[in-house]
Amino acid sequence: MQGTISESDWMVPFPKAAVDELEQALQRLRRDPLPLLLLSPAQFALSACAAVMTAVGRKLRRGVGLAVIDRIPVERFSVDENCALYWLLGSLLGRPVAQKWDGTMIYDVRDTGKALEYGVRRSVTNLELQFHTDAPWLALPPERVGLLCLSPAREGGVSQVVSLATVHNELRRRRPDLLPRLYRPFPWDRQAEHAPGDDKVAWQPVFHSAGRDLVARYNETLIGNAETLTGAPLDREGREALAGMRAIADSPELRVEFTIEKGQIQYLNNLWIAHSRTAFKDAEEPYLKRHLIRLWSRDEGRRTFHG
Q: Which residues of 19-34 are buried (b: 16+ CB within 10 A; e: fewer)?
């Protein structure tokens, strides 16, 4: 991926006209507030913003599957105001959906200091994240994942992305014998995002075809967790297939790396692209600690977590 694309393939400028529209929308909200979940782009004049999000959508659906908006002047606004503006922009791209079983629609990605244990996502720690897609155990995972950076880490937190279509094709070239197993179901840890008493594990394939499109799910850690939860070891063929896929996905020459900067928004096509993040160190001052806001969107199914 890295050798075939450049920054111009994913970077999307955010022009002054779009900034002006956001500030005008915010002035209205300061005079006449509404709860975030009731905000809709149709309530405001956002034609320049809509043009930006149309460009983002093209890059996600017809381009490389990655887009970075550069940039929103987040320093002018409060955290709540940034959330509202981000919600409006995200709604121009697609329908926001719940990111947790309890209906959480907007999700803070920052180090909470929690220890990594069952039900605690790595996204709320400062630990390295391995390549993954979001919510791979769902029948309807989010189609698009967005991250607005309010504050970057003092050190580390480098974003990495890899095309799972490229991984699939490389696997077909190098080890075609491994691919059929990846089209059959694997067990996935549901990360405690379900009703009490429901199964802790879901079964989904890594790859499947949706019409002419390849759809991919990926998070080897959650498959490993599922083995512990079920007490049943993964079959040998499944282990070999995942190991072969990991060897390709982790190849440095296939990935794109960048550090998301203050005010930038990173969008990914979650059905094509796996992403990761290096470990990071925060500043001591609370207001300088790494803080990203995440939105999921999906046009299929319902707006609930399970779709």
A: bebbeebbeebeeeee
pLDDT, tens digit (0-9, with 9 covering 90-100), for 103-119: 999 999 987 776 656 65
Q: Which residues contact 46 (CB under 8 A, 6 or more apart)?
A: 21, 22, 25, 88, 92
Model confidence pLDDT, tens digit, residues 38-74? 999 999 999 999 999 999 999 999 999 999 999 999 9
Q: Does 1 reside within a domain?
A: no
DSSP 139-182: SS--SEEEEEEEE--SEE--EEEEEHHHHHHHHHHH-GGGHHHH
Residues in the chain: 307
The structural domain count of the chain equals 1
Q: Are 151 and 289 spatial neighbours (Cβ–Cβ below 8 Å)?
A: yes
- Looking at residue 57, which CATH number applies to its domain? 3.60.130.10
The pTM (predicted TM-score) of the whole model is 0.93
